[in-house]
Design brief:
The complex is a heterodimer of chains A (about 120) and B (about 170).
Chain A lengths: L1 H33 L17 H15 L4 H12 L14 H25 L1
Chain B lengths: L1 H25 L12 E2 L4 E4 L5 E3 H4 L5 E7 L4 H14 L4 E8 L3 H11 L5 E5 L3 H5 L7 E5 L4 E7 L4 H11 L1
Parallel strand pairs in B: 4-5, 5-6
Antiparallel strand pairs in B: 1-8, 2-3, 2-6, 4-7, 7-8
Classes of the chains: A mainly alpha (about 120), B alpha+beta (about 170).
Amino acid sequence: MKILKILLITFLFFGTTQLKSNEKNNEFKNKILKNIRCLICQGQSVYDSESDFASSIKLIVGKKIKEELSEEQIYEFLREKYGNWIIYDPKLNKNTYILWLLPLLLFLLGGAIMVKKLKFKN
Amino acid sequence: MKNKYKSIILFLFFIFCFVVLYKGLDNPNIYSPNIKVEKKIPLFTAKDFNSNNYINSDIIFEENKYYIVNIWASWCVPCIKEHPLLMELSTNQSIKIIGLNYRDNLNNAKKFINEFGNPYTQILIDSDGTLAVEFGAYGVPETLIIDKHKKIIKKFVGPINGEIVQEIKSIIK
């Protein structure tokens, strides 16, 4: 009876650990899928889409996670196949640096104007 | 004088914003895939349609020839439309046509080939569509041209037509 109890506790412990690990993997996979654009059904992420293309991408992402590729490596693989457009979050490169830096520049410019005005008032 | 400069700079800034946004209106918001590609073919292992044996990409593309990879499925109506053109291309001795059977029922695919003819030197099974992703494909039908250096040099998304066949012929000349 005692052995049975120990076995049951061990089984439950490992079962819960496995479940938690699967849940973590799914969360990671979903995070990636939500950042991939479905190229067939525009306006939807691969996570939301049920198209054939999205299903294949879901399988590929799962496969790459199993191969222990990092999030960035998976994005790079998809970028190489389909270009930058497939990723919702554009990477900072020569084509996108204006997109990334312009809001920051405008923010700094606005701040500078405000500081100057306040100083002038004082 | 200072205010005048400020107004001019502000005016120029607004003009700049206007031009950028106006130009943006002309850009189509429908994604059009890049059809001019210069990528090495992926390395893969796939199941052969006839023998059911696994075959390596190195063996599939081993000859020093132009290859055409055609992604097709029996459930795809445009594939039926382009099939006679593939049959026509298959008579050309300087190319090999590889078929990639995409997310299909094997029996239906065999019926399709029996009914419309087999233009392919080899057919690979892509039951879950992941092999098509390795080729950077979007769906069916899709046709890729691979040169003698094993590089994908052109991609045709959608069914091929007479014009495309002429283009393919001029590329492989």
